Amino acid sequence: MVERGKATQGKVAKAAAGAEQIEIKATVPNHQIVPALRRFGLTAHNDEERFIYFFDTPKLDLLGAGIITRARRVIGDDHDSTVKFRPVVPADVGKEWRKYRGFKIEADASENGMVKSASFSMPVDKGLIKRVAAGKRSIATLFTDEQEAFLATMAGHEVDFSTLVVLGPLHAQRWELEDPACPWPMTVELWRRSDGKRLLEVSIKTPVVQAAAAIGGFMAFLAEVGAERDREQQTKTRWALEFYAAKYARPAGAAKKAAGAPNKAAKRAPAGSVARKPASKRAKSPGAKRAPQGAKATVAKAPRRRAKTRTRRAG
After folding, report:
1. What's the first-to-final CA gap in the chain, in angstroms?
2. Cα–Cα–Cα angle for 57, 236, 231, nearest 5°?
3. pLDDT digits 0-9 by tens, 158-174
4. CA–CA separation, 112 vs 118, rounded Å?
5. In 3-state terms, what secondary structure has residue 40?
6. Is 5 left (phi over 0), alpha (psi -120 to 50) or beta?
């Protein structure tokens, strides 16, 4: 029974105030991942494949300050980089950023609560992310002057990109689907770390005015199809970053020993996975584009040279 009355009036609207849209998310418990993929017919033949790279200090100072910096390689589609702050107070975010098409303020809702984020994404030239990951280009080259200005303004000081390291990549599969029992289009993302562990997230996006109905309706839909509540639910970003930061910090001897040991996870595909077709032969998921993040930082900026600035204004 959902409580109703004066105590609940406008509660969701107030929590989402200032956001342009709301994304409602739920993770699926590990033992239900394979049945969920089968139920909706989600395979490597109809997904959008992505490789996601995060950039932070080895101690995750940016994440601790509510800042996420990342880049995404989307197979067969455009690549991008994102600077995200979470949480934010929308009224405190300067209006000058709203002229950029890649900027947005969004409310993220889950069974654990709601948080608002501000993110700024820009396109990245193909091949650049790989060169950065290989150490042939600096991390700073992935972000435009406008993104760096947004980062410095929101954080209260400039960030020294030379103190950051590459964490990842994390392999992701993404699908968009509809179900007659759910009035909102759904997005499903399956993230897989290099240790073989997986995280499956199901989400919908709606205008803020529909937030209360969408949260209640989506959770009711998940209950109806038998999706259990994930007691270990956490954000995909933290789940990935903490693993890769720990891996990065592992002593050289331990890393060498691990490298020489048989990698059982690599030899055996996780249950429910399907052998991939070449990227050129796989169907491309319609409408799958980018996403956006939160608060204060810690680090000072080293001078550098920029070859070219990529600017995209809202048309």
Report:
1. 46
2. 125
3. 999 999 999 999 999 99
4. 19
5. helix
6. left
In angstroms, what is the C-alpha Rg of the chain?
20
At 161-210, the pLDDT tens digits run 999 999 999 999 999 999 999 999 999 999 999 999 999 999 999 999 99
Are 88 and 295 in contact by the 8 Å Cβ rule? The answer is yes
At the topology level, CATH places domain 30-250 in: Hypothetical Protein Pfu-838710-001 (2.40.320)
Hey, what are 288's tokens?
């799958």
Strands (E), 198-241: 198-207
User: Phi first, then psi: what are they for 247, rounded to 5°?
Assistant: -65, -40
Of the ranges 29-38, 145-154, 174-183, 249-258, which one carries the lowest mean pLDDT score?
A: 249-258
Among 213, 143, 155, 209, smallest CA distance to 182 is for 213
* Domain residue ranges in the chain: 30-250
Q: Are the beta carbons of 173 and 285 closer than 8 angstroms?
A: no
Of the candidates 108, 81, 116, the one whose C-alpha atom is nearest the C-alpha of residue 27 is 108
Q: Give the ranges where 187-315 is alpha helix by DSSP (H).
A: 211-224, 236-249, 252-260, 264-267
Total-model pTM = 0.78
pLDDT at 279 over 50: no
225 near 181, Cβ under 8 Å? yes
